[in-house]
Amino acid sequence: MINRSDSQRVVITGIGLTAPNGNSLSDFRTALLAGKSGITDYEIRYFGKTVAGLCDFDEFRYQKRKERRRGTRAGSISIWCAHEALADAGFFWNAGDEDTETAWQTGMPDRSRVGVYIGVTEHGNVETENEVYNIKQYDYDCQYWTHHHNPRTVANNPAGEVTINMGITGAHYTIGAACAGGNAGIIQGVQQLLLGECDLAFAGGISESPGTFGIFAAFASQNALAHHEDPTKASRPFDLDRNGIVISEGGCLYTLERLSDAKARGAKIYGEIIGYAINSDARDPVLPYAPRQAECIRMAIERAGLRPEEIDLVSTHATATPSGDIQEAVAIRSVFGDNPKVYVNNTKSFIGHAMGASGALELAGNLPSFQDRVVHPTINLDHLDPKCELAGLVANTPRQTDGIRNILNMSFGMLGINSVVIVKRV
Questions:
Q1: Domain 9-264 maps to which CATH number in 3.40.640.10, 3.90.79.10, 3.40.47.10, 3.20.20.70?
Q2: Alpha carbon distance 382, 378 (integer Å)
Q3: Is 317 a catalytic residue?
Q4: Separation of alpha carbons 169 and 333, rounded Å
Q5: Is 147 tagged catalytic?
Q6: From the candidates 179, 198, 252, 388, which is the catalytic residue?
Q7: Which of 154, 317, 370, 424 is the most exposed place for a label (fewest CB within 10 A)?
Q8: Catalytic hit among 172, 228, 317, 376
Q9: CA Rg, the chain, in Å?
């Protein structure tokens, strides 16, 4: 373990999330331990019937209806997660105050020293599809195209909507990192804190993907879209009968702080981010590559000052595509060997693939393991693919352990982007 001063250590002090099977960490964790899926039947125009993971949170708890009409689903998810994370971190926000300047209470960090860093897979497609669909009834006359379209579709929209809603005047941007976006957002928040660019970071990832038919059509054309007569069994990572991805929405933002600041205000701490890495396959737009994934895992472990055997829990990315799961299993085995004490699980089996939100949500679902010493399982794992065999894979029922010290969270994405974040129990 590398010794650093408290001002050079970054910790998680708040978590705000919405997932297809829960709108708080407590509810999310309860669902994961109970084997409760959030996947349901779904139908979208031009594509038809399919399955998806959809969130059900109160969009108007932190937004007025006019603000929601002007904004986006991605922005609404982001605003929900940011407010929930802030409250969870122990900061008081006066949500009833019309003035965001006075709502930002004494005792909170200077709002110019707060950064918002949100990972995304894609943004703006749903808004463009909706506008094209709407003007169809007017013979595609563009005078009926909404004047809200540009601010809705710019890449920084989800993070920008948070700053407007909350009166944050520090830096904000989104990180386009495909399905590695959630981890990339966390890494960006850590780096900005260590550089002294902010004192509080909202960091993580969000996704609004089920709103656009294009993503369903694209995965279907690749023969990579999951189907099952029971939607709750459609997402089947590592299973021999897996047949593709379940597209989901969701979000998870963390409040990140330097340990010195968290200690000074007596904050609760979920864990310390002690290692991370991002690299590229540089090979194929879609197909993953196990050697580069393994390299990314090793880089993160080395930066954390750990050995592979000191990782207690590996949270996998596995999306339930035939080749993707195999490549990931190869990468895991090449780093950890056949060590049954390195537990391995998967969260997409419960919630589907929440794209840019996936890495952040999957980490959140595992963080309670530090306290309860339980590893949530991978569900729908009825017939393990022999090529995906992993010594410590937790299947279908939770596993009680002697304790979890270090969690390694993996997320990989198109164009060959790989990301890893390691969190230590504090």
A1: 3.40.47.10
A2: 10
A3: yes
A4: 45
A5: no
A6: 179
A7: 154
A8: 317
A9: 20
